[in-house]
Amino acid sequence: MTRTIAAREGAGVVQLEAEVIGNVAAGSYRHLTLVTPGLAELARPGQFVALSVGDGTSSMLLRRSFSIHKVSPAGTYGGTTEIVVAAHGAGTRLLTALEPGESVGVIGPLGRGFPLPAQPVPCVLVGGGYGSAPLFWLAEQLRERGCAVEMVLGAASADRLFGVVEARRVGDGVTVTTDDGSVGVRGWVSDVVPDLIESTGAAVVYGCGPMGMLRSLSAIADEHGIVAQVAVEEAMACGIGVCMTCVMPVRDESGTTSMVRSCLDGPVFRGDRVRWEAFEDGYCRVPEDAVGAPTVVR
Amino acid sequence: MSTPAPAVDMSVDIGGVRLPSPMMTASGCAANGREIHRFIDITALGAFVTKSVKLDPVSGRGTPRMAETPSGMLNSIGLQGPGVRAFVEKDLAWLHSIGARVIVSIAGNTASEFARVARTIVRSRYASAVAALEVNISCPNVANRGLVFACDPAGAHKVLTLVREEVPRGLPMVAKLSPDVTDIVEIADVVLRAGAHGLTMINTTLGVAIDTDRLRPHLVAATGGLSGPAIRPTAVRAIWQVAGAMREGRIRAAPIVGVGGVRHGTDALELVAAGATAIQVGTAAFNDPSAPHRVGVELEQLVADRGFERLADVVGIAHERFTA
């Protein structure tokens, strides 16, 4: 059932009609396993896949992007890719309803993943809701490099956490927070992260989850003089860098701000490079000093 | 199961330039080539159409700048781009290096800015890669709504006249028209009189989506351009009207590049039968990056299935078979 649509040599990305071989509940989410030959071998933690909704006649044209939870290059089915999907709207409801044996259009791996430290330094990995999905695979790779890994999983309530059991397997320490206190520490991940950075002497914070959480993680990292590497969520139409819808204001090394595509230049950015102040009330404005920004008439 | 290769002459003539295939990307839907070249060989297309390039760098608008709508999407990107000098040195250089046939889409805030962009392109050292210029007088996402030249006959005429002065003989100039006008035939007439060698129809059509949670416009710019299969009947209508006027001798005959909601070969065939010589695939590429190539394969098969040996024999055929 799996069929390769496009896989140009050296492109680093494949386009497939992928067979679904698993769809199981994980709290409020669905954990999908897809047969993706050629994709698993290329993927790194923090990269994502873009799934189509329905077939070539679907009225929902835009792909939905999900960070890769894990890949298995050589299982019984050949390479597989696992993702975690929350049913938010009509498109994700169709995806979470996919049954084993059905197929779904997949493009991946996409974007730049999490950079790994050259030295074995302590790291704090923070996931909000199902945003934690890519962190377990990242934790394994960090520990293979000798890094101590402290994990923080936060959500509104216990059912919206993802991967607590897996975190205990791959992390040296695990802290759980919920807004309603239904499990773990009552409050936000940002309430516990400063103490963890100090107690572990962390050199890097990795984050994946809602933008507000990533913004506060970046601020906490700044206050501690360390680097935050955050995987952002921006609305994407294509995921492959052609539509220009997922842009964000990001500074480059020289301090110049541009509206960059989060699908190509991200989704992982250094927290101190993102112009968080441009985000407000569901909008992101173009900073006045960004390259090519509209001239402000006063 | 093997299907015999259909023997259809798919070559097309765009204002004197022969292209081996009618298939093109649509401006703004394939960036400047590198990204989509990971999925399909863009040198195999009839032409690669770039994102519209302006004189200076443009940041585009803030976000959200996109909303999904039934069988379509709204965008208010705002012609984000690096400016023509960076475009030439980076993007056109790359397209030239891989041997792509390029249609450069140009835009500007003023008629003379269009002309300066055109001049920079045609005088660049990579100009040999340029098969044509597409003059985007119809982008709805510029900062000033009054700048949609394609809604203003005098403005459209001025842009085409000034660009024409920069374009060397043999390089076609194709004007991209907006469907958001009272009479698209009138605008087509004006730009053809000003020297356009062909028309691209259609650009996106203006729309608004409301965020029903926040009860405010979804896009930060409020309005956006609607694209995707939702607008295909509008594209077919525009092509039908303008091709009809050409056939009746009311306006000068010129090739029409059809664009708007093409996702499958049958969609492309609709536009061709209505009068389009070539086909651009836009929003469908966001869903399926292989679509600009795939649609061409499907179109060729459909033309063969209907007993034609040349795509050119199908162009506008619906006018001949319409007997109302």
TrEMBL record, chain A:
Query: What keywords is this UniProt entry annotated with?
Result: 2Fe-2S, Electron transport, FAD, Flavoprotein, Iron, Iron-sulfur, Metal-binding, Transport
Entry cofactors: [2Fe-2S] cluster
**Superkingdom of source:** Bacteria
Start and end residues of each FAD-binding FR-type domain? 6-116
Query: Which InterPro entries would you find in this protein's record?
Result: Cyt_c3_hydrogenase_gsu, Dihydroorotate_DH_ele_sf, Dihydroorotate_DH_Fe-S-bd, FAD-bd_FR_type, FNR_nucleotide-bd, PyrK_electron_transfer, Riboflavin_synthase-like_b-brl
Q: Does the keyword Ribonucleoprotein apply?
A: no
Ribosomal protein as a keyword? no
Q: Which Pfam families match?
A: DHODB_Fe-S_bind
SUPFAM superfamilies to which the protein is assigned, alphabetical: Ferredoxin reductase-like, C-terminal NADP-linked domain, Riboflavin synthase domain-like
Spell out the family assignment given in the record's similarity comment. Answer: Belongs to the PyrK family.
| Name of the protein in its database record | Dihydroorotate dehydrogenase electron transfer subunit
UniProtKB/TrEMBL annotation, chain B:
Q: What pathway or pathways are given for this protein in its record? A: Pyrimidine metabolism; UMP biosynthesis via de novo pathway
Q: Where is the Dihydroorotate dehydrogenase catalytic domain?
A: 11-302
Question: Top-level EC class, please?
Answer: oxidoreductase
Q: How is the cofactor bound?
A: Binds 1 FMN per subunit.
Give the residues the record marks as binding substrate. K51, N75, S76, I77, G78, L79, N136, N203, T204
**Location of this chain's protein in the cell:** Cytoplasm
Q: Which GO terms describe its molecular function?
A: dihydroorotate dehydrogenase (NAD+) activity
Which UniProt keyword terms apply here?
Cytoplasm, Flavoprotein, FMN, Oxidoreductase, Pyrimidine biosynthesis
Q: Per its Swiss-Prot or TrEMBL entry, what cofactor is needed?
A: FMN
User: Which reaction is this enzyme known to catalyze?
Assistant: (S)-dihydroorotate + A = orotate + AH2
Q: Which SUPFAM superfamilies match?
A: FMN-linked oxidoreductases
Tell me any Pfam family this protein matches.
DHO_dh
What name appears for this protein in its UniProt entry? Dihydroorotate dehydrogenase
Species this chain originates from: Janibacter alittae
The gene that this protein is the product of is pyrD
